Structures are given as structure tokens and as C-alpha cells.
């Protein structure tokens, strides 16, 4: 039975299509090509298969039709650098000292003692490339070539970290008191060297196409050996940039145009695999780093009904789309409603390839049984929602989520800027511990703590376990097993 479409969060959460488990992989190492496509600030509801409207995403929808859609998948944290750190190392990002979003003046980045997916796969003979936004430190010692990648092309941090206002005018021409004056020009890097400075919106318009062309070239050059391609797009983070071939093509304005170009990019990757007869031996993973940046109005995406967005521990901030395709291994047109996270990718790839796991403690768990269609498997049952520097704001076990008193960003009750300019946000203070049954209430509208005191106690015990291990700034608990990031000399 094939997946044709999923209309919104309700259908995607409740539907479970029949799965036939594939045979387990042999104990000897397998060497599929691996492509990991990471979107920036794309919401749960931004794809055709999750209910997007006024534009189409046929190539990404084809991934879901030919592979598996994960409906209960979480980014490691609801903000850029932290999410990427967790994805590439298999750790909660606060464990390895990467929290929040690293700024262009940061003096720290990913520690060289941490093992990335690229370093792990390199031990198995993979040629590795990173094309797109890095954001794990902009100094040379933190760039991809120093962390297991053989090739890099992209920008070192978010595309809004530049001295240009949201209307595309360089800030020194209009407001010399703005905070944007602190930003340096936005560099485009190949290898370890800056090859260009992106100084206006025209440069942003070319990014998606440039990344795609480099990715297709990488596939062509490495078609005769196993490769790992990590493709973290700069879009759909603001400022939105789109090429002329897609400008004005959607019925949802610039955001829809950008989504259509990203979908085109995915199609070009799939076409390159087919052209070189690599499709059957390639695992493709498509996901987002966190939820949409809602205060940018119609320049932001949608959570598909989940609460809030980027920058908070509600479901809209951390539950993200994830689709995987691996012909002959992942059953076609299937949905997985089991709990999984970006921190699980590294150990999963280790099990697939026979690579050794990092010597340092990681938090990820292999989800290969889920990918192979084992309906009884449930490798992950718990998840920690950390934010700020090291604040444990919530924990999840099975389908229950316990939210602790904290202050955080909120969009609910505020009107976003409809023209794409920053809208109004506020600080929501959670005064008491709240419990949500995510199976019945994925929008987190109804606190049921008083009705289920035994669940509150059970999740409080889980939270205490997390605090002793990783700490909790809200409780002034340092944690026993946190590690430091790397620092610039």
C-alpha cells in the first residue's frame, strides 16, 4: 500500500500504513551511499505530504512515496548550531557544549575530540562532502575539513548574520546604530578559503542553485566509491532567496517560491542518482533542523498545527519532518509513528556500515529496526527538551510530555508581521509543571497533570535522571557528564 498524501498533523499522526519488515542487514559492513539533506527553519507542515498549500513539493513527496515518513521525529534542539551539533555527533548538544546559535564573533565551536558522522564514515572508506550552511564554528579549526569532511562549499553560519537589513539595503546606508553593524560580510567558503562575499540579496538568490550544482558534481565525481554527502541548505531561513526560475511561481509568495526551489534541488539530487545508477544503493535522509521562525510572518513556514515554533521547547519548535528512502531496505510508502531524533542518525549509520561508535559517550540510539519496517521495535522511548544554555524545559516518555516552569519565547496570542518583517513575539512564563498527552493533543492545548498524577511522578523521575547526567540551569544543577566545546587559540 503506497503513501499518496497526508493532510496535516492529525492524519499523519494517526495513520499507520501496513509495513513488512525487511530482512536484517548482514553482520558484515554495508556501504550504501548516504545523502543527508537538512533544511533550515522548515516547519512540520511545509511539505505536500504534511498538508502544505499554495505550492507543490512533488520531489520531496516522491521521497515519502518511495520511502518512509517519520511523524514523531525531533531535532536535537530548537535552534541552529545546537541542532547541527547533535545531528553530526549523536549527542544532546548541551552535552558537548554547543548551545544556541553561534555568532560570527564566537570564539568556540565543535571540539576536535568529538567524532562526527563524517569522521566515523571516513574509517570505512567513505568520501565525504559538506555543501551548505555549517554553523559549528567559523574559525578554520572548526570548519568541515578539520572534522572529517573531504570537501566543503558553503557559508559558515546563518544567512541573516550579515550587515544588511531585511529589505536588502546595507545597514550602514540607513542606520549606523543598528545591531546589524556588528556583523562582518557574509563569506562563501570552498575548502578552508573564502572565495566570495555575499553582499546583497542577489547573492542569497543564488545559494540554493549553487549548492545543488556542487552537490550534483560531488555525486558524479564520487560515483565509483561510497560517499557521504551532507547538504545543509541555507533556506528557508530568512532572508529568503530564490532564483529567477522560481520567483513568483507559487501562490504563497516568496516562501512558497523558495520551497519550490528546494524541492527542485531534491529532484536534481534524485535525478543524479538515477543517471549514474546509484539509486538502489543510496540512503537518502531529508529533515529540518528545527521549526519555523514564526515572527517573520509570511516569510516563515507552518508547524501544521503544532504549538509555537523555532526557539522553544513546544512541539512546533522541535518536532520536524523526516523522510528516508533506501530501495530494497526501507519499505516503500510507509509511515513510522515511533519516537526518533536527529541524535539517532549517527549510531544508525554506524550499525549500517559496521563503523565503530565514538569512544566518548553519545545519546543517540540506532533506529535501523524502524527503518527496516520492524513494527514491534521501539528503540527510543525517552527524549529531553533542553534549551537556553542548559535548561531542561521538558521531558517525554512514550507519548507523554512533562513541561517544567520556565520562561521562553511565545508566538501564541501575538500577530506576526504579515509582510515578512519581524512581527511581535513575547515571553511566556510557565508557572507550574504541565503534562500533555501528545497522542491525543499534539497541539499541547490541554494540561492534564491533575488527571494523571502517576505520570507526572514517572516523568519527574526521568527528568531527575537527566539533571544528574546533563545538568539543569533552572535547578542550578551542573550535571556530571557535560563536555567543553573547542576554543579558538
Query: Do you know the CATH architecture of the largest domain?
Result: 3-Layer(aba) Sandwich
Give the count of structural domains.
Answer: 2
Large-scale geometry: globular
Number of extended strands: 20
What would CATH call the class of the largest domain? Alpha Beta
- Unreliable parts: 1-22
Distance between the termini: 56 Å
CA-based gyration radius: 21 Å
Helix content: 10-25%
Instruction: Output mean pLDDT.
Output: 92
Reconstruct the topology from this structure:
Layout (H helix, E strand, L loop, with lengths): L7 H7 L18 E7 L18 H9 L1 E3 L2 E2 L5 H10 L18 E2 L7 H6 L4 E5 L19 E4 L31 E5 L2 E6 L2 H5 L1 H15 L5 E6 L20 H23 L6 E7 L26 H4 L3 E4 L8 E3 L3 E2 L3 H9 L14 H4 L10 E6 L3 E7 L2 E4 L2 E5 L15 E5 L3 E4 L15 H18 L15 E2 L2
Parallel strand pairs: 1-9, 1-10, 2-12, 3-13, 5-6, 5-9
Antiparallel strand pairs: 2-11, 4-20, 6-7, 7-8, 10-11, 14-15, 15-16, 16-19, 17-18
Helix pairs in contact: 6-7
Describe the 3D structure.
By secondary structure, this protein is α/β, with parallel strands linked by helices. The protein folds into 2 domains: 29-380, Alkaline Phosphatase, subunit A (3-Layer(aba) Sandwich); 384-481, Arylsulfatase, C-terminal domain. 22% of the residues lie in helices and 18% in strands. The strands form 5 sheets. A 10-stranded mixed sheet has the order 8-7-6-5-9-1-10-11-2-12. The chain has a 4-stranded antiparallel sheet with strand order 14-15-16-19, covered by helices on one side. It is globular and about 55 Å long.
Amino acid at each position: 500500500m503506497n503513501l499518496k498524501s497526508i493532510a496535516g498533523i492529525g492524519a499523519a499522526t494517526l495513520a499507520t500504513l501496513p509495513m513488512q519488515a525487511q530482512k536484517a542487514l548482514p553482520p558484515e559492513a554495508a556501504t550504501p551511499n548516504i545523502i543527508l539533506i537538512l533544511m533550515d527553519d522548515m516547519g512540520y507542515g511545509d511539505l505536500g505530504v504534511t498538508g502544505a498549500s499554495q505550492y507543490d513539493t512533488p520531489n520531496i513527496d516522491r521521497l515519502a512515496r518511495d520511502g518512509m515518513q517519520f511523524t514523531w521525529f525531533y531535532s536535537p534542539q530548537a535552534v541552529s548550531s545546537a541542532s547541527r551539533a547533535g545531528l553530526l555527533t549523536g549527542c544532546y548538544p548541551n552535552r558537548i557544549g554547543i548551545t544556541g546559535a553561534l555568532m560570527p564573533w564566537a570564539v568556540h565551536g565543535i571540539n576536535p575530540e568529538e567524532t562526527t558522522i563524517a569522521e566515523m564514515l571516513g574509517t570505512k572508506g567513505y568520501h565525504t562532502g559538506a555543501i551548505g550552511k555549517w554553523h559549528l564554528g567559523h574559525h578554520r579549526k572548526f570548519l568541515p575539513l578539520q572534522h572529517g569532511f573531504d570537501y566543503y562549499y558553503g557559508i559558515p553560519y546563518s544567512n541573516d548574520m550579515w550587515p544588511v537589513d531585511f529589505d536588502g539595503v546595507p545597514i550602514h546606508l540607513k542606520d549606523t546604530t543598528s545591531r546589524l553593524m556588528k556583523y562582518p560580510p557574509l563569506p562563501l567558503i570552498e575548502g578552508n578559503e573564502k572565495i566570495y562575499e555575499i553582499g546583497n540579496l542577489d547573492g542569497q538568490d543564488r545559494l540554493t542553485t549553487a549548492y545543488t550544482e556542487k552537490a550534483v558534481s560531488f555525486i558524479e565525481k564520487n560515483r565509483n566509491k561510497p560517499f557521504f554527502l551532507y547538504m545543509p541548505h541555507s533556506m528557508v531561513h530568512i532572508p529568503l532567496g530564490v532564483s529567477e526560475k522560481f520567483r513568483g511561481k507559487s501562490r504563497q509568495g516568496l516562501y512558497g517560491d523558495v520551497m519550490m526551489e528546494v524541492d527542485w534541488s531534491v529532484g536534481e539530487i534524485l535525478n543524479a542518482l538515477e543517471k549514474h545508477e546509484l539509486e538502489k544503493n543510496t540512503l537518502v535522509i531529508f529533515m529540518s533542523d528545527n521549526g519555523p521562525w514564526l515572527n517573520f510572518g509570511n516569510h516563515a513556514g507552518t508547524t501544521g498545527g503544532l504549538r509555537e515554533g523555532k526557539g522553544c521547547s513546544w512541539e512546533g519548535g522541535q518536532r520536524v519532518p523526516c523522510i528516508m528512502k533506501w530501495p530494497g531496505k526501507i519499505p516503500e510508502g510507509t509511515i513510522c509513528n515511533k519516537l526518533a531524533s536527529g541524535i539517532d542518525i549517527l549510531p544508525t549509520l554506524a550499525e549500517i556500515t559496521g563503523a565503530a561508535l565514538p569512544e566518548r559517550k553519545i545519546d543517540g540510539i540506532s533506529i535501523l529496526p524502524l527503518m527496516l519496517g520492524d513494527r514491534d521495535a521501539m528503540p527510543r522511548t525517552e527524549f529531553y527538551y533542553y534549551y537556553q544554555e542548559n535548561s531542561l524545559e521538558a521531558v517525554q516518555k512514550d507519548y507523554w510530555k512533562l513541561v517544567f516552569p520556565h520562561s521562553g519565547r511565545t508566538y501564541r496570542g501575538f500577530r506576526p508581521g504579515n509582510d515578512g518583517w519581524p512581527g511581535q513575539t513575547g515571553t511566556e512564563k510557565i508557572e507550574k509543571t504541565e503534562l500533555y498527552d501528545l497522542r491525543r493533543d499534539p497541539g499541547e492545548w490541554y494540561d492534564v497533570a491533575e488527571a494523571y498524577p502517576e505520570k507526572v511522578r514517572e516523568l519527574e523521575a526521568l527528568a531527575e535522571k537527566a539533571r544528574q547526567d546533563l545538568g539543569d540551569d533552572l535547578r542550578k544543577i551542573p550535571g556530571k557528564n557535560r563536555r567543553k566545546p573547542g576554543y579558538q587559540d
